[in-house]
Every structure is written in C-alpha cells, then in structure tokens.
Design goal:
SDR_fam; SDR family NAD(P)-dependent oxidoreductase; alpha/beta; SDR_member_12; NAD(P)-bd_dom_sf; eight-stranded mixed sheet; Rossmann fold
C-alpha cells in the first residue's frame, strides 16, 4: 500500500505517534497485528515497483527456510536473479525447485557457504565472484543464523554466534566488494548520486535487551555463564553497533548497509530454538513473508534508503532503548578493531 499524498499534517503526526507506540510497547508492534495495523497507516511507505530488480543480482544467506527463504522469494518476485547461499546444497536445490514452482521462470542459483567457517567463506566468495563473471552483485542479505544451546566454537575457534552473525557476514561482504562496487558502475552515468549495491543484516529485536560486551565478546572469560539466547542477542547487538564502521568502510564503493529486525516471526528457527516462546506467542506471530518484508523492501525500494540505519517495518528505529545498552564510541571502536583482526580484513 502506498502512502497517501497531500495527507494532513495532523494525520501524519498521529500515524507516526501510533507507530512509535507500537514499537516501544514491543508485543503489539512485533506481532502480525502490528504489521497489519502499520500497513493501514497513511505513513506506510510505498511498495517497490513490480519489476524493481529486473536485471539485478541478489544473494541471500540462510535461504533454505524461514526468513531467508521468504526474502529470496520476495526478491525473485521483483525480478532479481537470486543466489541462494546455503550450507546444505542438497537442501538448497530442493528449495530452489520449490521456489521455481511458486515463481515460474525465476533465475535461481545455489551457492555453498558455511558462514561460521571463515576459510569456507573465503572459498565461497571466490566461487561466487568467478560465477558472476564480471556481473554485478546488487543486493546481499545476511540472514543465516544459529542459536546453539551450548557454547560452540567455529573451526577458527570463535564462539559460533559471533562467527555466523558477525565475522562471516562482514568477511563475505568485504571479499565481494568488487562485485558490489560494480553495481554503482552499472547505474546511470548521468546520475549525480548513483544507486549502489545494498547490504542488509537481518538482526533481532532481542538485541535491545543486551549491551555490547567488548570485554568478553565470545564468553572466553565466562564460559559457565553461556546462554544460547543471550549469545544470539549479544551477537545481534554487535551487528547493529558495527553499522557506522561498515558504512564508512564500504561507502567509497557506493555500497550501503542497513540492519533490520523482523519482529516476531513464525519460522523453523523459532520453533526449534525457542519452543516455549513459540507455544506462548504462536497465534500472533507473523508469517515468514511478514518478517522478511523490510529486508525485501530495503533491497529494492527507490530511492535507496540511507546507509547505516536500523529498520523495522519500513521505518528507521533507535538502536538502543535502554541507557545501559548504549555503547560508548570507544566500545564501538574496540568492536571494529576486533572484527577487523579476527575476520582478517585488509586495507
């Protein structure tokens, strides 16, 4: 639904106020009820054009189920050629076949990548770059996620949530910078502000309850305190706090980066990792398409949204709601230094 033009300022103010109330009260705003209500507000942004991504290439990690699958389908419906970046190629091919039934004629390719294994990320980036063969990569959505119940280490010895949600996505994006930069090169040469590639990090509203623990990012000092849900939320907090650094790093190539959280969505990950939460909230959870809506919108809408923001339901949201979760500039710098060192970024 497009927002109405010429709407009265009072109506706009009231709509934005209601949207903010939904956001701050969490339970109503994160459910399918919140999404349904927001879509009826006069301030709801317009959908992308039906063929907004025609001729464009998108990649989605964790695309075999839940939000990743819904994001891939949404991008394909807008005309994008979509690369399904998955750990299990056999499952990826099954999903590809299912998507072709729902989106006939879609251009879908399966790529293997374990985001938790930085060596495999390097291999996958090289393979994707070669497969693109000079074509652009216009949209990259990082959705792959894990929530191990016990502290688990990646092949490089990193706590798995931080490896999959932070180190792997940053490294993969950085290694594909040339393909992402080419998106801007392929845009209208007469455009004074060319629309470049877009990177979207799928984060979680759970990060609002967690502070940035730069003193113990991977539970090295306190393995006995490990909680899968807390580690997940802390890694999502790290994603959001990296936005300024990632924006600065990729801006020279006209690559924008955004984070979005989906609210509460009914996905296999929630069923498997949070069965109690799912049992309690199941009737009001969004479907996967509702959860993925903003990720698809960010990848396709014109003009391009500003880089470096956190989004939910097509609107920029604050990154912290509690004073105790607001990191200092020094903490953000420490996080970025840690990521650069442990992901092996160069330049």
């Amino acid at each position: 639904m497009a927002h109405r033009t010429g709407q009265a300022p009072l109506a706009t103010t009231l709509a934005r106020g209601l949207d903010t109330v939904l956001d701050r009260t969490i339970a109503p705003g994160y459910t399918k009820l919140g999404l349904s209500l927001r879509r009826r507000l006069p301030t709801w942004p317009a959908d992308p054009a039906p063929d907004a991504l025609r001729g464009r290439v998108a990649a989605v990690t964790g695309a075999t189920s839940g939000l990743g699958l819904a994001t891939a389908e949404g991008l394909a419906r807008l005309g994008a050629s979509v690369r399904l970046v998955v750990r299990n190629v056999e499952k990826g091919e099954q999903v590809r076949a299912e998507l072709l039934e729902r989106v006939p004629g879609a251009d879908l390719v399966v790529d293997r990548c374990d985001l938790g294994d930085l060596d495999d990320v390097r291999r996958a980036a090289a393979a994707i770059d070669a497969a693109l063969d000079g074509r652009t990569l216009d949209v990259l959505v990082h959705n792959a996620g894990v929530m191990p119940p016990e502290r688990t280490l990646s092949p490089q010895g990193h706590e798995l949530s931080m490896a999959v949600h932070v180190l792997g996505p940053v490294l993969l994006t950085d290694l594909l910078r040339d393909r992402l930069a080419a998106s801007s090169d392929a845009s209208d040469p007469d455009d004074p502000a060319p629309s470049g590639a877009r990177v979207v990090l799928v984060t979680s509203g759970g990060m609002y309850a967690q502070a940035l623990r730069v003193d113990d990012l991977e539970y090295d000092a306190s393995p006995e305190d490990y909680s899968g849900t807390t580690a997940y939320a802390r890694s999502k907090r790290a994603q959001v706090e990296l936005l300024p650094s990632l924006t600065a790093r990729w801006a020279p190539e006209h690559v924008s980066v955004a984070a979005m959280h989906p609210g509460w969505a009914d996905t296999p990950g929630v069923v498997d990792s949070l069965p109690g939460f799912h049992k309690l909230t199941g009737p009001v959870l969004r479907d996967a398409a509702g959860g993925a809506d903003t990720a698809v919108w960010l990848g396709a809408v014109e003009p391009a949204p500003p880089s470096g923001a956190l989004w939910h339901d097509r609107r920029v949201r604050p990154t912290s709601l509690l004073r105790r979760t607001r990191p200092s500039a020094a903490d953000r710098r420490a996080l970025w230094d840690w990521v650069r060192e442990n992901a092996g970024l160069t330049g």
